[in-house]
Each structure stands twice: as structure tokens, then as C-alpha cells.
Specification:
Elements lengths: L5 H4 L6 E2 L6 H12 L7 E5 L1 H9 L4 E7 L3 H7 L8 E5 L1 H7 L8 E6 L5 H5 L7 E4 L5 H14 L3 E4 L9 H7 L2 H4 L2 E3 L6 H10 L3 E6 L4 E2 L9 E5 L8 H4 L4 E4 L11 H17 L1
Parallel strand pairs: 1-4, 3-4, 6-7, 6-11, 7-8, 9-11, 9-12, 10-12
Antiparallel strand pairs: 2-5, 3-5
Helix pairs in contact: 7-8, 7-12
């Protein structure tokens, strides 16, 4: 890797000015944001100063960083933190704004390499905490909150089942506050689907626990300290009946009767906290 002096590392001369929307890297950035998916090279798109710095702190490999023309203060702050091998591009405000989904962009975006994990990787981490299996969660804010809580309270990792919002959604990444860069996340389709996931978990003697908004044992009575997988369903319909017939236990969070149900992100966070409490006890 080329080494630059501190002055060179933060110099605006490192920036390559791009004027046209047909630049290959700009097109990749725009499409990655638009489709909430990885590029063909396996990179995902991120946006915002805090998120970019979290990605740097988490050791992600950067492919390219894009700066808005008017964001001069961000150039000086981020360039010294970015390796000399990384493409650094300067875009006119209009071109930058057209590429990112945020209504009021901060002025920095990037393509970063996504860390790949498998279900086997998560099974090897069960001493840290339960595996979370998310089945059909749609709200990106809820998923981001769950990922943040999973890192905060201890989780082996998260499996995202079919019908769940993409982890590459910009709102998911923002709501996770950087946890998505460090917590192992596995796409369910890469595991062969829900049936294959259930089969593998059972084969490893992992206790299967479903969450419910109104039925089931109180969470302080559940055996969450054991090697466990906790299933979280859709915000409205919850988990499917088929899945509920296959788990070992269903748990619910006691709450005031005038409250119909808890937000999915909050409910999952409470379960993760209780699992951490039981492990410490």
C-alpha cells in the first residue's frame, strides 16, 4: 500500500473530480443505493460522516469514497483516515445528491466491502449469546435497532430470513449506528431457506424460541442462557403458524393491557437484554 505523509493524506489533491453521471463508480454507488443491494464486486453503499467513520473504525475495506463539492470540511477530516489505495472522488453537489437517497445529504458516501459470514460462523459464537433469526421484518428502522441491540447485549449473530428488509438498505445501516459492520449477519437464502436453518439448529442442539406479542411464557421464565435461537417475526402478523409449531418454546413480554403490542425493535431488544441478564446470573 502506498504510504503518504500526513499532509499528503489530507490534501485535496488526492480527490479526482468527476463531472458526468456515467462514471462507472458513480453508477455503482447510485445502483447500490437504489436497489439496497451489493454491487457485483460485493460492495455496499453507505452515506454520512458518522457511518463512514464507523466503517473505518470497524476495519471495513473501502473501495471508493465520494465527497460532495461543498463539503470541504469533510475532505480534511476523512482523507487522513482513508488508505492511499482507495479511490477518492469529488462530485458536484447536484451529481452527489442524485446518487444518494438522503434528502439532506451530509456530503460523503462510500462503497465498502461487506463481510461474509455463514450459519456455521454463528454457531461457533453461541457462547456470546443467542442467534437471532428475523423472519419477515419490513421496517428498516426496526432491523437497524435490533442489530444495534444485538451487539450491545451480546448475540452470536443475526440470520435474515425471506421477506425481511435488506441489510443493505441505507436506513437499516443508519439505524444500526455501525453495529451492522461488526455483528455477523447472514442472509437466509444463503443458508438454503428457513427449513434448512431449523434443521441445522436442531442438529446442533440449539433451543428454538419464538417471540409473540400476546401468547407464551414470560421472558424471565424462558431458558435464554442456553444455546438458543430467538425468532422475531413481521411487525403486523408476527411469525407464521408453521414456524410456531416447530419451535421449543414461545415467549412474550408482559406489559400493560392498554398497550396492544410492543414495537418489534424494542421487543427484540428486551429479549436480548433478558438473555444477557440470565447469562450473567
Amino acid at each position: 500500500m502506498p504510504r503518504l505523509s500526513q499532509a499528503q493524506a489530507g490534501s485535496p489533491e488526492r480527490l479526482r473530480r468527476i463531472e458526468g453521471r456515467h462514471n462507472a463508480l458513480v453508477k455503482e454507488l447510485r445502483q447500490a443505493f437504489a436497489h439496497a443491494d451489493r454491487t457485483a464486486a460485493g460492495d455496499c453503499a453507505i452515506e454520512g460522516l458518522r457511518i463512514a467513520e464507523e466503517a473505518i473504525r470497524s476495519g471495513l475495506r473501502f473501495r471508493a469514497v465520494f465527497f460532495r463539492q461543498s463539503a470541504q470540511d469533510l475532505h480534511a477530516r476523512l482523507l487522513p483516515q482513508i488508505g492511499a489505495h482507495v479511490e477518492t472522488l469529488l462530485l458536484p453537489d447536484k451529481l452527489f445528491d442524485a446518487a444518494v437517497p438522503t434528502e439532506s445529504p451530509q456530503g460523503v458516501a462510500a462503497l465498502v466491502r461487506w463481510k461474509e459470514f455463514s450459519l456455521d460462523d454463528l454457531l461457533e459464537r453461541l457462547q456470546i449469546g443467542p442467534i437471532l433469526v428475523i423472519a419477515g421484518l419490513q421496517d428498516p428502522g426496526n432491523l437497524g435497532t435490533i442489530l444495534r441491540s444485538a451487539e450491545a447485549f451480546g448475540s452470536a449473530g443475526v440470520v435474515l430470513g425471506e421477506g425481511t428488509v435488506s441489510p443493505f438498505n441505507a436506513k437499516v445501516i443508519r439505524a444500526s449506528a455501525g453495529s451492522i459492520f461488526r455483528l455477523p449477519v447472514v442472509l437466509g437464502k444463503a443458508c438454503g431457506g428457513l427449513d434448512a436453518i431449523l434443521s441445522k439448529l436442531r442438529a446442533q442442539s440449539v433451543r428454538l424460541i419464538a417471540t409473540s406479542s400476546h401468547k407464551g411464557a414470560a421472558i424471565d421464565q424462558a431458558k435464554l442462557a442456553l444455546p438458543a435461537a430467538v425468532f422475531v417475526g413481521n411487525e403486523g402478523s408476527g411469525l407464521s403458524r408453521n414456524l410456531l409449531t416447530q419451535v421449543d418454546e414461545t415467549v412474550a413480554i408482559p406489559h400493560s393491557p392498554q398497550v396492544e403490542s410492543l414495537n418489534a425493535g424494542i421487543a427484540a431488544s428486551v429479549v436480548l437484554y433478558e438473555a444477557a441478564r440470565q447469562r450473567k446470573r
